[in-house]
From TrEMBL:
The lineage of its organism: Bacteria, Bacillati, Actinomycetota, Actinomycetes, Pseudonocardiales. GO terms for molecular function: hydrolase activity. Residues 347-430 form the DUF7586 domain. InterPro entries: AmpC-like (IPR050491), Beta-lactam-related (IPR001466), Beta-lactam/transpept-like (IPR012338), DUF7586 (IPR056008). This is Serine hydrolase.
Length: 450
């Protein structure tokens, strides 16, 4: 970062710490594959916190649990449309699907019954399940977004049953160790901040408890550091280190439901919060537990991300701070586009398919992308456009837009030459209605003037 950029970032951090009266506040910015800036204000045990000082990250824990679930999906162990009953039988809400639990649309109660779970020691799964009576379902599953900590306690149990171990052991083996995140733990180890509540009318502190949440731990148990969470910011942006395919993380970032339907500025995907800010699409998650606030956000389009921790129960604009850090970097040091270079693996057979195709009289352009992907776009720029990834010989599957999930098939004539494209029954020909025998309903007459 340029000195002017670093000063602007530090000033934003310092202003937040001072005006919010946070005992300590730390932040970092990532770009590409590196933590390019970090800053801190306040004290932890009488000294400035470092990139190795642990803070409790609260609900950011949910993003880790969601990754474990998506790994199970990618392995074919479960389907996102599976009812919970297929994996954890014996609950009162077994018809809720895995996808609904991930996206907070299962209709479950927001908090576990009984004492405030964030401030009291938690029980095991059997005790939690006994407390979840039929009244636990507050809304029709799938009807709307309703944030549920309980849902992620349940997902932790899904992971545990399939992996034959507790959720954190699975997380350590499958995600944290491969990514080198040794300082992300369920309890503080080594240098760690103490959680405080700050008196609303005086500059004094109250020590907050940090009990083990038991079966509710997957909803918010973890502690982490600037160094570790910078790796996670890159992960959210698509630099997955082989733990998940980047396409799966992109799927997680897509909003399954929005919280403010009229404006669509915030939503929730599969374990990730999403937002639109100043023309950017950001993804990540916030976290809060008594004594702590945290946020991690990434802009997949630019590779810029930000993360922030405070050891204060409330009062710190942690989400706005993370957004402002990303915005500041992008304004003062805009990211450069990737350098273009020819595709050395371009397939000549696919190259021959590129160019104009017609859906009836409407012209489209078929482009060849990297890795044998195709893109079909209306020439006018208006209408249905999608990208397609290979799915077999002469077949591709839609990735986005109207044709997401649909099959694009290349049809050949008796001689084996390309004849037309078949996309979810829509026929595309090289000329307007240029392959009459392929057009549903036939083409009775040629083009005429009257």
């Amino acid at each position: 970062m340029l000195q002017t950029t670093e000063h602007a970032l530090l000033r934003r951090l310092a202003t937040e710490q001072s005006t919010s009266r946070a005992p300590s506040l730390v932040a970092g910015v990532v770009r590409g594959d590196a933590l390019v800036w970090h800053g801190e204000r306040g004290r932890v045990d009488g000294a400035a916190p470092t990139t190795d000082t642990q803070y409790r990250i609260g609900s950011i824990t949910k993003t880790f649990v969601a990754v474990l679930v998506m790994r199970l999906r990618d392995e074919g162990v479960l389907d996102l449309n599976d009812p919970l009953e297929a994996h954890v039988p014996g609950t009162s809400f077994g018809r809720a699907t895995i996808a609904q639990l991930l996206s907070h649309t299962a209709g479950l109660t927001s908090e576990s019954p009984g004492s405030w779970w964030e401030r009291t020691p938690g029980a095991d799964w059997d005790a939690l399940n006994r407390s979840l009576t039929p009244d636990t379902t507050k809304l029709r599953p799938g009807s709307r977004f309703h944030y549920s900590n309980v849902g992620y306690g349940v997902l932790g149990e899904v992971v545990a049953r399939h992996r034959g171990t507790d959720w954190y052991s699975a997380l350590r083996a499958e995600v944290l160790d491969p990514l080198g995140m040794a300082r992300t733990t369920p309890h503080p180890e080594g240098a760690a901040a103490t959680g405080y509540a700050v008196h609303p009318h005086a500059d004094v502190l109250l020590h907050e408890p940090t009990p083990d949440a038991g079966a509710m731990a997957p909803a918010g148990q973890l502690w982490s550091t600037v160094a570790d969470l910078s790796t996670w910011a890159r992960f959210v942006g698509g630099d997955t280190g082989g733990v998940l395919h980047p396409d799966t993380v992109a799927e997680m970032r897509e909003p399954a439901h929005v919280e403010d339907a009229d404006a669509w500025t915030t939503g929730y995907g599969l374990g990730l919060q999403t937002m639109r800010v100043g023309g950017r699409r950001l993804a990540g998650h916030g976290g809060s537990m008594p004594g702590f606030l945290a946020m991690v956000l990434a802009d997949p389009a630019t590779g810029t991300g930000a993360l922030c921790f405070a050891n204060s129960t409330s009062g710190v604009g942690i989400g706005a701070l993370a957004v402002d850090l990303i915005t500041t970097v992008e304004q003062l040091e805009p990211s450069l586009p990737a350098e273009w270079e020819p595709d050395p693996a371009a397939d000549p057979a696919l190259l021959a398919l590129t160019g104009h195709w017609y859906w009836g009289p409407t012209p489209y352009v078929l482009r060849l992308l990297r890795d044998r992907w195709l893109e079909l776009v209306p020439v006018s720029g208006r209408g249905r456009a999608s990208r397609f990834e290979p799915a077999g010989t002469d077949e591709w599957v839609g990735l986005d837009g109207y044709y997401a999930g649909e099959t694009l098939a290349l049809r050949r004539d008796a001689a084996g030459d390309p004849s037309h494209l078949d996309l979810a029954t829509f026929v595309f020909t090289r000329l307007p209605y240029g392959t009459p025998e392929a057009v549903p309903g036939g083409v009775e007459e040629g083009w005429r003037t009257t």
